[in-house]
Structure formats: C-alpha cells, structure tokens
Please model this.
Amino acid sequence: MRILLDTHIFLWFISGDTQLSANVRDSIRNPDNEVYLSAVSIWEVIVKYQLGKLPLPETPETYLPKQRDLHQIASLDLNESSVVQLAKLPPLHRDPFDRMLICQALANQLTIATVDTAIRAYAVNTM
Model:
C-alpha cells in the first residue's frame, strides 16, 4: 500500500499518541508499505508553530525532517501535476492544506491516513 499521512496522523505517530489506531500505526510501520509525508504537512506545521498553536520539542524545520527520517517515511514534494488537481475538487472542505493533500493523493495514487471526515467525503482512498 502507498500511504500519505495526514498531518495529524504523522504528529500522533511520532509522539506515540493513543488517538492513533493500531491499524494505522501498524500500516505505517509495515515495511511492505510506502509511507509519505507531504511538504504541505511541513508547511502546515510551520505555520501553526509560528502562530503559537502547535508546541513542538524543537523547531519544526529541525524536528519534522528528523522524525520523518527516523521513522523511514519518505518526503513527498508538491508538484504541478498535483496542484492542477485542485481545479477538479468540489468545495467540500475549506482547509487549503487538506485540499492539497487530497490533490497529491489523487495525482500519485496514494491512500490518505486520516480521521478527518471532510477528507473522507472526497473520492479519494482513505484509511
């Protein structure tokens, strides 16, 4: 399986948060799966950190890549083929970060690991 982690899923995973289901945790850890963290999630966390809405043990530009590498999660860049998917999305969700994750999942045939019901309303594979 090719999995794109929603931002909250990545944060729950690296912090050992009990809100993360065992199924998702095991899927992230499964070496047979390709697991990705989008550059969009890094962007989102930096914005929230700078606004004082998300405390982290280190600055996000240091902490997030370190954690991603530690857990062998690949980085997914944002490219034009993903961005143009935005023109096809119905306006079901207002969060621009989540909308871009949906676009990346569609463009790259990825399954999004999320608990966000608004993301699940789109025609995108979720877990």
